[in-house]
Amino acid sequence: MFHVVQYRPLRLITQTSLSSMCLKFMLSRPVAFAQIWKSWFSSHSLDGNKNIILMGPPGAGKTTVGRIVGQKLDYPVVDIDDDVLETTWNMSVSEKLQDVGNEQFLEEEGKALLKFSASRSVISLTGSNPMHSAGMQHMKKNGIVVYLDVPTTVIMSRLKSMKVDRIVGQSPGISLKDILQFRKQFYRRWYDVRVLCGGDVAAEVVAEKVLDAVRRYQDSELETFISTRSSRSRRSMEKDSHKYFSDVVTEGLAPDGGLFVPERGLPKFTAGEWQSLTEATYIERAQVILERCIHPADIPASKLAEIIGTAYGENFTCSKIAPVRHLAGNQFLLELFHGPTASFKDFALQMVPHIFAYCIPRSCNYLVLVATSGDTGSAVLDGFSRLHDTDKQRIAVMNFFPEDGVSPIQKSQMIGCQKENAWSVGVKSDFDFCQTAIKQIFTNSDYTGFLTVEYGTALAAANSINWARLLPQIVYHASAYLDLVHQGIIPFGSPVDVCIPTGNFGNILAALYAKMMGIPIRKCICASNENNVLTDFIRTGVYDLRGRKLIPTFSPAVDILKSSNLERYLHLIANEDGQLVTQLYNQLENQGHFQLQKDLLEKLQQDLVAGWCSEEDCLAAIHSVYSTTGYILDTHTAVAKVVADRLQDRTCPIIISSTAHYSKFAPAILRALRIAEINQNPLSQLHLLSSYSPLPPVHWGLLETLKKKGNEDHQVCAADMSMLMSHIETLIQNHFM
């Protein structure tokens, strides 16, 4: 058998080996330390006779790392350059390259790979092996390909020190940097797992990372999910009913009414790993971060890359996807509105439909239910309408929104985004009713069972109660920090604050998760509008809905009183005490309030501060910023700007999440800019705004949607559970039957 370590326990040993005692032990008794390694590896094995195949650019350290991994495993080590190519050709690699030229060399190299076979070995590929498709397919049949991902600047520095100025495939007129960048597409095609390698990481550390990555690849049992309301005793009795990423994507809400969270928490990145991403594009950062959060047994790296490329490749108007713009002083805007529906919801909802389509079983139809306070609806409808036709036939989406609780342009957009598998229903109530109704439908086992038996259709959720919605949001918070580092505004490790307009707590929770994963965020500032239940809660520890009525505001996406994702954060700071979370939310449901214990409130206030903004101050901020900079904030961003001005101490940069494009709220913006005559037609309002040559320009996607005919057609229903269920059944009958 091909033995590998059960590596997580051993990683604790290697971390503490930095202490002088362990370091002396390793130096004085290397044989004993090697025996510890071998004893760990002898008790756990890979399936079959798999090889560990190290892949990466020249200078990545494949040969050195391969020897260390082989020594730790006590397995044969094969260096393709020295042990295969030169032996086969009976000449050096450089001589062969000079003899046959670039193109023929790659072909000859591939032929040599096709004739090579091994098992239970550690194999170090050449930097150009991945450019030969047939050769790599042959190698992958019996191996786990580990990509040693080293920043291009580091590789160039290493090659320079090695006095290497040309590599295979580099034609005259093509720089070394260009050919290294060109090769990355081939590395990304073939790897199973990735290991991030910074510039100053020792080969021994990289070898440990390789073993850790292989262990994770082979053991999906380590990455399970639990409900925020499950007790430890119940989890111990239900060990056989593990939930994995694919399960929680499909199910959305836990059966006990709680929200799914990873049982072992989120992965941690070292400072060096984060720094290795400063040069990366947004798509590259997303790939690296999400690979760590989604087990390859659920979505392989190659499929995940395809999904990310589809989500962000052509659907965003800005090549940087989520650019960071300096506003004034120490304030920076994270622009999250460059997606097709002009809000931050696009970051998740251009990706989640494809994740969902990949994860669900093919034997069942799915109806995705979503409640929206404004932006989610159009983003969900647009995202699911972009699925392949075969997926549209088995996946439909129904969007419930407060009929009179969104902006006119938001409503026109949601109705205009309806497609053959995507519908909107206006509900004569507020967002809290829509969200609560969906939760009640999901936990009504009689009703969901009836839909499955009668119509062969299962229900799923696309709100931020679905775990997959949160992960892409972590990416843009991390990326914003890395952009400030890349631009030289701060060195890595210097803190920043973030200020986020907050209603359902998903966006700010993603920032807190980014902080847990190693991004140096000091404080997360929660910005509320006049529906300031969260501000009161963060300041006092009392979540109190008694006597509160939802106030319609200029920032409708945060017109929310019941913040769903707050439950995930409370579960986190309560050390996964599901019983306590259940108690708190039962009290909220039955009595309309709950209060945190003092120790939990202190934990919360280490991460969060909060403030709120009046309607007048919101409009004044829009006018002031436009007057001084020519830049137009949307109403939600203006709420965050007002709160940031009041609460941030200016000792570090603050990143304000600009969560939507101002075009979605044209009447409020025109009012803020003190334009007297406002046409009630949404399209006319956008044309009027455009005439001011604002920064940024009016959103093209909104203009295109509003130009469509038939935007007035949609269904409207009363705030009644039976009516919502009736609409669901009608949709299922019309689409799937």
UniProtKB/TrEMBL annotation:
GO cellular component: cytoplasm
Domain Threonine synthase N-terminal: 239-312
N6-(pyridoxal phosphate)lysine: residues carrying this PTM: K345
GO molecular function per UniProt: pyridoxal phosphate binding
Cofactor: pyridoxal 5'-phosphate
UniProt entry keywords in alphabetical sequence: Amino-acid biosynthesis, Pyridoxal phosphate
GO biological processes: amino acid biosynthetic process
Keyword Amino-acid biosynthesis belongs to the record: yes
Pfam families named among the record's database cross-references: SKI, Thr_synth_N
UniProt pathway annotation: Amino-acid biosynthesis
Family from the record: Belongs to the threonine synthase family.
Record-linked PANTHER family: THREONINE SYNTHASE-LIKE 1
NCBIfam families in alphabetical order: thrC
UniProt protein name: THNS1 protein
Taxonomic classification: Eukaryota, Metazoa, Chordata, Craniata, Vertebrata
